[in-house]
Design brief:
Layout (H helix, E strand, L loop, with lengths): L2 H13 L17 H10 L8 H12 L21
């Protein structure tokens, strides 16, 4: 998917009230593949094998202004939890 298409689709989801909650969770971000690869390269903790470190890195990213175009919800907060 092109970046332009993903951003337009994300805006439509936000305008409709955000992503729906399903029995297993809810999508909070939709990031174009190229952007995701760049993000992971610049933030290696996002792919850390230690789930706690990865969750903290994702929450930090989600709460940053950089994630705004990729959010599917209206509000930012910490979404990823580690059991």
């Amino acid at each position: 998917m092109s970046r332009k298409f993903v951003l337009r689709q994300n805006e439509e989801v936000r305008s409709a009230g955000g992503a729906r909650t399903l029995s297993f969770g809810r999508s909070e971000l939709q990031i174009p593949k190229e952007e995701a690869e760049r993000l992971k390269a610049s933030n290696p903790d996002l792919t850390c094998a230690d789930g706690e470190i990865a969750a903290k890195a994702w929450n930090k990213y989600i709460n940053s202004s950089e994630s705004k175009p990729y959010r599917l919800g209206r509000k930012k907060k910490s979404w990823i939890s580690v059991p």
